[in-house]
Write a structure and sequence with these properties.
alpha/beta, Rossmann fold, 2 domains, seven-stranded parallel sheet
Length: 378
């Protein structure tokens, strides 16, 4: 039996990477029932409980210490279990001499913006990560922009890279529970119109600029829908001080932080949003933008990294994305133009269908098979 090892340590941390990795593992394990899969995890995942999957729970989670642990542990485990190929899914790899090796790099934000990351992470990405990349047999990434970054910043050979767009965590936008919808609206006191941000509270997300934009709108007396922030705080590059900014600016009525929400509740938050705001200044993909378009929510985002590739012509893209005034002007203009919001909603759904049609985890299986076939002929 062909055995595939998948390193998904730290997958329990909420974010776009978790969504993408779980969807990928579900697809390939169900598509290849004749293969055996060994998942290396920090915590048991009920979503990945399948007959051909064995979950190995390790004490390591993420970061440099986890990589040091895996450098020692993984080669022996791969040899003992007879694993043919190892896929590192969260941008960090280990040296395994007994199997084919692939890894997924979601973005190179640490290299692009070292000022917002710990020095240890910057050193790893600058000096160790390129060496790991050269030792991989194949590399996956989530956008053409991210692939370009890998070639330019890590000197990865272009023919080694396969681009696979991320997928939304939502299967359908059809209404499926009217009672839950009512509960969500009442629980979070959702008004008829509101703006929405979904994502982790991390420095690269540039949420402070958004809050300053609301301060500007407040000072102007503009009638703008309140903003709801949804997502967990990110310990590695935390932007939790934005919550203090909200309080200091007396914006508690205009900006509310809901924290991390269950998927089924987030579904209805998306469906009822009037405008989606995504001020991040670097993304390997930007799954929340994709999900906003899926729900037909008009969006304003930044014109940087992979975001234009994902959004296309469907959203308003801000070039001067560090300017609170520019954000304030765009939010006010779109709020006061319902006809434009309707056009953007329709264009967003079309763009979502376009991106989704270009997405396929079957390319992962194709790469696996190519490498395994090559190994058998060596």
């Amino acid at each position: 039996m062909t055995k595939i090892g998948i390193d998904a340590l730290g997958i329990e941390v909420e974010g776009g990477a978790r969504t993408s990795i779980i969807r990928m593992i579900q697809f390939i394990t169900q598509s290849c029932p004749e293969w055996g899969f060994i998942l290396y995890l920090s915590k048991h995942e009920p979503q990945l409980k399948l007959h051909n999957v064995k979950q190995v729970i390790l004490p390591a989670s993420r970061g440099i210490l986890s990589r040091l642990f895996m450098q020692i542990y993984l080669p022996f485990d791969v040899l003992i279990r007879g694993i043919d190929l190892v896929h590192f899914t969260k941008s960090q790899a280990s040296l395994v001499p007994f199997a084919k090796k692939v890894f997924t790099v979601h973005d190179v934000t640490t290299l692009k913006h070292p000022e917002i990351h710990p020095k240890s992470a910057v050193i790893y990405w600058k000096y160790i990560q390129p060496l790991m990349a050269k030792r991989m047999d194949a590399i996956f990434t989530v956008s053409n922009d991210a692939a370009k970054d890998l070639v330019e910043d890590m000197h990865v050979a272009k023919d080694k890279i396969t681009v696979i767009y991320n997928a939304s965590q939502f299967e359908s936008t059809e209404e499926h529970d009217a009672e839950l919808k009512k509960t969500v609206i009442e629980k979070y006191h959702l008004p008829r119109e509101f703006c929405l941000y979904v994502g982790i509270l991390a420095l690269k997300k540039n949420i402070d600029t958004l809050i300053q934009a609301y301060q500007q709108l407040n000072s102007e007396g503009a009638a703008i829908p309140p903003l709801f922030l949804v997502g967990p705080r990110y310990s590695i590059s935390d932007a939790g001080d934005v919550l203090d900014m909200i309080k200091a600016g007396n914006l508690q009525e205009q900006i509310q932080y809901l924290g991390r929400l269950p998927k089924e509740e987030l579904y209805y938050i998306y469906k009822n949003a009037s405008i989606f705001l995504f001020p991040s200044y670097h993304e390997g993909f930007g799954i929340p933008c994709l999900e906003a378009m899926q729900f037909g929510v008009p969006l304003i985002a930044t014109q940087t990294s992979a975001i234009p590739e994902v959004v296309g012509e469907a959203g308003i893209l801000i070039e001067d994305y560090m300017s609170p005034q520019v954000w304030a002007d765009q939010i006010k203009e779109l709020t006061n133009n319902p006809e434009k919001r309707q056009r953007m909603s329709e264009e967003g759904r079309r763009q979502y269908q376009k991106i989704s049609s270009e997405h396929s985890f079957s390319a992962v299986i194709d790469v696996y098979q190519r490498l395994l076939c090559k190994e058998n002929h060596e």
